[in-house]
Amino acid sequence: MPNTLYDALFRPHEASGAAFLSLKDGRDISYAEFLRLAARFAHALSASGITPGDRVALQAKKSPEALAVYAACVAAGAVFLPLNTAYTPAEVEYFVTDAGARLLICDGAARAVLAPVAEKAGTALLTLDADGTGTLADLARSQPETFTPAARGPHDLAAFLYTSGTTGRSKGAMLSHDNLLSNAEALVDAWRFTGEDVLLHALPIFHTHGLFVATNVMLLAGGSMIFLPGLDMDDLVANMPRATSMMGVPTFYTRLLADPRLDRALTAHMRLFVSGSAPLLAETHREFEARTGKRILERYGMTETNMNTSNPYDGERRAGTVGLPLPGVDLRIADAETGAPVARGDVGIIEVKGRNVFKGYWNMPEKTAQEFRPDGFFITGDLATMDADGYVAIVGRAKDLIISGGYNIYPKEIELVLDEQPGVAESAVIGVPHPDLGEAVVGVVVAKAGAKPEEAALIAGIAGRLARFKQPRRIFVADELPRNTMGKVQKNVLRERYKGSFG
Ligand code: MCA
Ligand code: AMP
Which helix (H) or strand (E) element contains residue 291? Predict the structure, then answer.
């Protein structure tokens, strides 16, 4: 039966003995082997009662098996819901409940804490450990190695990716088969990926960057991935000589630059370094070129839109810009109030329209409507200019958002939790420059009359509530928060005050 994503990304490789994944331990997994595993997993999903359209949540360490759950969901017609491994049980409960997930697959070590969560949400629970074992594998073991994919058309949903919001409540971005496929096609073409490519993959696989940009592109091109568990400089250095390409967030590049082993010889075999998810400093771009002779290709995207712009492969890659709109992406720089395009060179909000743009936020029709213009353009909330040649430069954000090491963190979500802490009257959360993560989270709290909240106690108090990466690295107690005449907290004043917190 036709299944848009399966037919494009997986079916062509069913009989291929070529390597798809090369693991840290030296083991290679061929395309055919991977797809046999995915077929068994797809049968296991069906055996667990999953039918097309059902949501399947996964919170598991990066492994070939975790990636095979994605393939299995596509084949079974399920909606894949990957979750950051750093999320606390309270956060997982929100996502699983909000999405109405039928099944949650988690690490065996998390089973005890997540069992009550799953039970409360009416969700079945299976386990998948980093070594591929667990109750999912047990269920899949005796299943057939071929699976007839469920019929899925271009507009059927393939994935929900949760993104936080300015209200502090996460929203499930609904991505269709066509959203994902059209973007993978555009990127394979724009970045010249072929079956000869070997991608150094050190990103997590629960976000757009590592899952859709990296993995879908390699599947479509038929190349292979050196599939590393995370970012480790020794692994990158050991594997770079046999890779052709890498995709990373800016922290990948600043850490490489801090490593004396980065030089022309190490990168000689690499044809492409891509950066995205957060701003790459022009200085990093230049230093990387000086050390390696390679110009990093910076691109820009969002969970809701996949990739929107990219610097050119052949043309000039301009430091400090995110390049030109990708083919098929309609992009305008618009006035925040009216949505009317601003004059060339002026600052406005990036708005986009195209096959890449998501179907809306799950169960939030009003929120979805607010984020789109009547003519169908999606309002990204990123402030930018476009120069005479069409290059887009992101100059700020209209949304209150912190990007730390490529992870998006919405201050509101943290402020709500800080405000509940004993002795806290009110709080403001900001991002300040950090040499490794780009931005780091800082909290500023005002004490209730007579109270003396302490940093360590506040950090301990929020620990179980928020994933570690969202927790402020520092919390300062201030006499009051600076406010403008409208009573709005002036975060720019706080950012200026605390900008030197991390050297
Ligand atoms: C880990 N920690 C962090 C972060 N990562 N804190 C703040 N921000 C982070 N990004 C914390 C851990 O909780 C831990 O805290 C300590 O730092 C060390 O953790 P570790 O796991 O060793 O860190 P790491 O392996 O060095 O990870 C840093 C990283 C990683 C490599 C930058 O965060 C990463 O892979 N980021 C990429 C995220 C990504 O894929 N973004 C794409 C989103 P403690 O020691 O105190 O317990 S998709 C997207 O944005 C759009 C669509 C796009 O355009 O791509
Ligand atoms: P997310 O919601 O996690 O998908 O993150 C999307 C946001 O990351 C965008 O709205 C931008 O603010 C930011 N972003 C992604 N790529 C870049 C980039 N190359 N430069 C600056 N910001 C970026």
Answer: helix 282-292
In order of 422, 445, 458, the CA distances from 454 in angstroms are 10, 10, 6
> Cα angle vertex 301, ends 295, 307, to 5°?
85
Distance CA 410, CA 450 (A): 30
How far apart CA 5 and CA 290 sit, in angstroms, is: 40
CA of 181 to the centre of ligand 2 (A): 20
What is the C-alpha to C-alpha distance for residues 334 and 343, in angstroms, rounded to an integer? 9
Q: Computed from CA positions of residues 405, 470, 84, 206, in that sequence, does the dihedral angle turn out positive or negative? A: negative
Full-model pTM: 0.96
**Contact criterion met (CB below 8 Å) for 334 and 342:** yes
| DSSP classification of residue 61 | -
pLDDT for 28 = 98
Kindly give, in sequence order, each residue whose CB lies less than 8 Å from that of residue 304, ignoring residues fewer than 6 positions away. 163, 173, 357, 358, 371, 378, 380
Q: Are 217 and 9 in contact (CB under 8 A)?
A: no
Residue 364 CA to residue 204 CA, distance in Å, equals 27
C-alpha to C-alpha distance for 382 and 241, rounded to whole angstroms: 36
Rounded CA separation 227/34 (Å): 13
Task: State the pLDDT at residue 236.
Answer: 98
Question: How buried is 230 (Cβ within 10 angstroms: 0-12 exposed, 13-18 middle, 19+ buried)?
Answer: exposed
Residues lower than pLDDT 50 in the chain? none
Q: What is the pLDDT of residue 408?
A: 94
Q: Which residue's CA lies nearest to atom 6 of ligand 1?
A: 469
Tokens of 310: 């990219």
Q: Is the beta carbon of 298 within 6 A of some atom in ligand 2?
A: yes
Helical ranges in 314-419 per DSSP H: 365-371, 411-419
Whether 274 and 209 have beta carbons less than 8 Å apart is answered as: no
245-248/272-275 β-pairing: parallel
If you measure from the C-alpha of residue 237 to the centroid of ligand 1, how many angstroms do you get, rounded to a whole number? 19
